[in-house]
Design goal:
621 residues; alpha+beta; Heat Shock Protein 90; Ribosomal Protein S5, domain 2; 5-stranded mixed sheet; 32% helix
C-alpha cells in the first residue's frame, strides 16, 4: 500500500548571493568547454590588440599548457588586475558600441572564466612602457616586474585542476589537440596578414608567415582545393561576398572543409548554410558536400554577434536579404558557361593532369572596420572574368535533330577531319571538335589542350534542364502536337489528376485527355522534349503529381520535376550520332550554364591533356 504524501514541505533555504568564484566557474561552463575554447578566446584577444605575429604553445592537447604570445599593443600595469575581472573590457562602452561591435572579443569575461578553472598568468608590456609586468590569477596577487620585449603573453596551465568532475569529460590528447588545431586554422584563414606559429609538445606543427589570402588558403586547405576552386567576388550595396568555392566535380563527403566568416569571424550559421545548399542543389551528386572558404562583409550594426557564448552563431537583421544575396552569388558563380579563354577544369578522374589555379587575389579596400586585424579578411579574389552573355533561353534547336536544321553544318560551323588531318588546335573552341563516338555513350573530341570526353546523355540532360527552367520562368513553354496521339493505360488516380489539373498540365506543355475507360491520350508534349519518349514523359509527370500534389510541383519541387522531364527527354545511350550532331551538342554545352554537371550532379565531361597522354605512354622517358 502506498504511503500518503507528506502533509507539509520542508522550507527552502533563504536566497543568498553566490560566491564570486562559483559565479565565475558557472560562467566558465559556457565559455570554456574544452582547451580549444580557451585558445579561441586568447587568439581573438591577441588579434584585437593589433598583433602582427602570434605564437601558440600547447602541451597535452592544451590541457596542461596553452601559451599565446603576441606583439600587440599590450596592457598597462594598472589595467592588469582589471583584465582578470569579469565583464571588464576596453572594446565597448555603450549599447551602441555593442550593437555595432567590430572587434573579435567584447564581453570581457574570457580571462576571468579561464582563471576560475585553471592556473592563469598574464605578462604584458604596453607600447611606450619602460617595463613589462606579470600578474598571476591568485587571490591578493599584485603585478610584478617581468622581462618581455613587447606585447602580451597569456599562459594557462592545468585546465580544470580545481573541478576534476569536468576534467573527466575531456577526450584524449589527440582529440583535444585536433580541436585546438581546427580553431587555430579558422582564425589564421581570416587573418592572412598576421603570422601564426603553432607548437605542440615542443614540435612545430604549423608555421604560417604573413601572406596573401590565396597563399594562406593554400597553406591550410592545400593545393588541390586552390586548383579546383572557383573565385567569388560579389558586392551588392552594404553586402559583399568573396573567397573560393570548390568546383562541384571535386566536392567531397564531409563538411570539414567548409569555412564561412562574417566580418572576419568564423560562424556556423543556418541562414548561410541553407543558402549554400540551395545554390549547389542542382550540381552536387548524392550526399557530397562542397569545400569552400567564404567571407561575408556586412554592416556590423546589421548583424548581432552576441547570441551565443562561443560567438559561433550570429543573427542577421534581414536574414532573407542575406540568404538571397549569398544564394544568387554562389549560383551565378557556378553557372558561368565554359569560356574559350579559360582552360577546362578536369574532373577527379583526370586529376593526373593537375589544374591551373583560378585564383589571383589582389588588394580590396576595407569596409570601415574599426580594427586593422579584424579587416584583414577583406582581401578577396578578383580573378573571375564577367560571365559570357547567356544564350537565348528558348531556342527552336533544342533537340539534337532539330538543332542541326537550325545550325549550319558546313566546314565553317563544324570543321571535320579531312584527309589533311584534324582542324588547327589553336582555333578549337573550349570543348573542341568531335572525333568519334565511343560505345554510343561518350563523345571523343579534340581541343587545343588534348582530348575531351563527354557523357552525351548527361550533357544533353543539363542543356534541356536549363532550357526548361528558362522557358517556364518566362512563361514561354511551347507545345509540340503529336501527329498521332499516344494512348496508354492509366489508373484511377492518374485519370483523376488529369481531370483535376488539366490547365496546369497545359502550362507545363502537356495536353492529356481521357481516351476511354482506363486510358489516357497524350496529344502534345513540350517542344523542348519532342525527341523524347512521350509516354515515359507523361507517366513521370503524373507520378510526380500524385506523390507531391500540384502546389509543391509549382513551388518547392518545381526544379525536381523539370529535372525528371529533362532526364526522360535527353538523348539516350547507345544512340548513334553523326559528327555534326556531336558538334552541335558540344556547342550547346559551351552556351549552357552549369554544363559541367548533369541534373543529378554527375560530371558531364573530363579532359586529358597531351601531357597526361604522354605520361600514359611513357613518352619522353
Amino acid at each position: 500500500m502506498l504511503a500518503p504524501p507528506p502533509s507539509s514541505v520542508a522550507p527552502l533555504p533563504r536566497i543568498q548571493p553566490l560566491p564570486d568564484l562559483l559565479v565565475s566557474q558557472i560562467a566558465a561552463g559556457e565559455v570554456v568547454e574544452r582547451p580549444a575554447s580557451v585558445l579561441k578566446e586568447l587568439l581573438e584577444n591577441a588579434l584585437d590588440a593589433g598583433s602582427t605575429a602570434i605564437q601558440v604553445h600547447l602541451e597535452a592537447g592544451g590541457v596542461k599548457l596553452i601559451r599565446v604570445s603576441d606583439d600587440g599593443c599590450g596592457i598597462a600595469r594598472d589595467d592588469l588586475t582589471l583584465a582578470l575581472t569579469r565583464h571588464a573590457t576596453s572594446k565597448i562602452r555603450t549599447l551602441a558600441d555593442l550593437e555595432g561591435v567590430s572587434s573579435m572579443g567584447f564581453r570581457g569575461e574570457a580571462l576571468a572564466s579561464v582563471a576560475s578553472v585553471a592556473r592563469l598568468s598574464l605578462t604584458s608590456r604596453a607600447r611606450g612602457s619602460d617595463h613589462a609586468w606579470k600578474l598571476k590569477a591568485e587571490p591578493g596577487a599584485a603585478p610584478e616586474p617581468a622581462a618581455l620585449m613587447a606585447g602580451t603573453v597569456v599562459e594557462m596551465r592545468d585546465l580544470y585542476y580545481n573541478t576534476p568532475a569536468r576534467r573527466k569529460f575531456l577526450k584524449s590528447e589527440a582529440t583535444e589537440y585536433g580541436h585546438c588545431a581546427e580553431y587555430f586554422k579558422r582564425i589564421a584563414l581570416a587573418h592572412p596578414r598576421v603570422a601564426f606559429t603553432l607548437v605542440h609538445n615542443g614540435r612545430t606543427a604549423l608555421q604560417l608567415p604573413r601572406a596573401s589570402l590565396a597563399e594562406r588558403i593554400r597553406a591550410i586547405l592545400g593545393d588541390d582545393f586552390l586548383e579546383h576552386a572557383r573565385p567569388v567576388d560579389v558586392t551588392a550595396g552594404p553586402l559583399s561576398l568573396g573567397g573560393l568555392i570548390i568546383d562541384p566535380a571535386w566536392a567531397g563527403q564531409g563538411k570539414d572543409s567548409q569555412y564561412t566568416f562574417v566580418n572576419g569571424r568564423f560562424v556556423r550559421d543556418k541562414v548561410i548554410g541553407h543558402a549554400l545548399r540551395e545554390a549547389y542543389r542542382d550540381v552536387l551528386h548524392g550526399s557530397r558536400q562542397p569545400a569552400l572558404c567564404l567571407f561575408l562583409g556586412i554592416d556590423p550594426a546589421a548583424v548581432d554577434v552576441n547570441v551565443h557564448p562561443a560567438k559561433t552563431e550570429v543573427r542577421f537583421r534581414d536574414s532573407r536579404a542575406v540568404h538571397q544575396f549569398i544564394f544568387h552569388s554562389i549560383q551565378r558563380t557556378l553557372a558561368v558557361p565554359i569560356r574559350a579563354d579559360e582552360p577546362l577544369r578536369a574532373t577527379p578522374a583526370a586529376s593526373a593532369s593537375g589544374g591551373r589555379a583560378m585564383f589571383a587575389p589582389r588588394q580590396q579596400p576595407g569596409l570601415g572596420m574599426a580594427e586593422p586585424a579584424a579587416a584583414a579578411y577583406l582581401e578577396f579574389a578578383r580573378a573571375a572574368r564577367p560571365p559570357a552573355a547567356p544564350a537565348d533561353p528558348v531556342r527552336s534547336d533544342t533537340g539534337l535533330g532539330s538543332s542541326l536544321e537550325q545550325r549550319p553544318t558546313g566546314p565553317a560551323a563544324f570543321p571535320e577531319r579531312q584527309d589533311s588531318g584534324p582542324p588547327q588546335a589553336d582555333s578549337a573552341p573550349p570543348l573542341g571538335y568531335a572525333l568519334a563516338q565511343l560505345h554510343g555513350i561518350y563523345i571523343l573530341a579534340q581541343n587545343a589542350r588534348g582530348l575531351v570526353l563527354v557523357d552525351m546523355h548527361a550533357a544533353h540532360e543539363r542543356i534541356l534542364y536549363e532550357q526548361l527552367k528558362n522557358a517556364l520562368d518566362q512563361q514561354r513553354m511551347s507545345r509540340q502536337a503529336l501527329l498521332i496521339p499516344a494512348v496508354f493505360s492509366a489508373g484511377p488516380l492518374e485519370i483523376a489528376a488529369v481531370e483535376e489539373h488539366g490547365e496546369a498540365l497545359i502550362e507545363l506543355g502537356f495536353e492529356l485527355s481521357l481516351a476511354g475507360p482506363g486510358q489516357l491520350a497524350l496529344r502534345a508534349v513540350p517542344g523542348l522534349l519532342q525527341t523524347g519518349d512521350p509516354v515515359a514523359l507523361a507517366r513521370a509527370l503524373l507520378a510526380e503529381l500524385q506523390e507531391h500534389g500540384l502546389s509543391q510541383l509549382v513551388t518547392t519541387r518545381r526544379n525536381e520535376l523539370l529535372a525528371t522531364m529533362a532526364c526522360h527527354g535527353a538523348v539516350r545511350a547507345r544512340r548513334q550520332l553523326t559528327l555534326p550532331e556531336m558538334n552541335a551538342l558540344l556547342r550547346q554545352m559551351e552556351e549552357t550554364e552549369r554544363a559541367g554537371q548533369c541534373n543529378h550532379g554527375r560530371p558531364t565531361w573530363t579532359e586529358l591533356s597531351l601531357a597526361d597522354l604522354d605520361r600514359l605512354f611513357l613518352r619522353g622517358r
